[in-house]
Amino acid sequence: MSYSKENVESIVNNGLSRRSFLKGLAASGVLSSFPGGILQANEDLNTKIPYLGEKSYKTFRNACPRNCYDTCSIKTYVKDGVMQFIEGATESTYTRGGCCVKGNSYVKRVYSARRLKFPMMQVGGKGSGNWKRISWDQAMDIIAKKLLEMKKEDGTLLGAALTKYSGNFGITHYGIEGMFNSIGYTTRLAGTPCWPAGIDAQNLDMGDMWCNDPEEMKDSKFIILWGVNPASNSIHSMKYIYEAKKKGAKVVVIDPVFTEAASKASQYIQIKAGTDGLLALGMAKIIIDANLHDQKWLDANSKGYKEYKAYLDKEIKLDNVSKITGIPLAMIKELALSFAKAKPATIWMGYGMQRHTNGGSMIRAIDAFVAVSGNIGKYAGGARYGHLNTWGFNYAALSMPKPEGSVGYTGPEGAKGDVAQGKDAKSNYTDRFLNINKTARELINAKEPKVRLLWVACKNVFAQDFDRNQLIRAFQQLDLVVVADQFFNETAKWADIVLPVATQFEEYDVNVSYWHYWLTLNEQAIKPLFEVKSDLEIAAMLSKRMNQLQAGSCTFPQSVDTKAMMVKEFNPGIYEQFGIKSWEELKNGPVKAKAVIPYADGKFKTPSGKFEFYSDKALELFGSALPTYLEVRKPYDKFRMTSPHSRWSLHSQFQNLEWMEDVHPEPYVYINPDDAEAKMVKEGDTVAVFNKQGLLRVKAKLTDNVQAGTVLMYEQWYNNNIYNVNELIDDTSSDMGAFKTGAPGVALHDTFVNFRKL
Amino acid sequence: MQTIQPQDRSRLDELKHLRDIFNAQNSKELKIAFGALHSCLEISEEDLEVQFNRYFVGPMEPIADPFASIYIDDPDVVMSKSTLHVRELYETMGFTNPLKNIIPDDHLGVELDAYYQLLYLEEAKGITYLSDLRHYFLHEHLSLWVPRFIARALEHSEHDSKAMTFILLQLKSLLIRETTTQGVTA
Question: Between B127 and which of A29, A183, A256, B121 could a Cys-Cys bridge form, CB atoms 3.0 to 4.6 Å apart?
Answer without folding.
Answer: B121
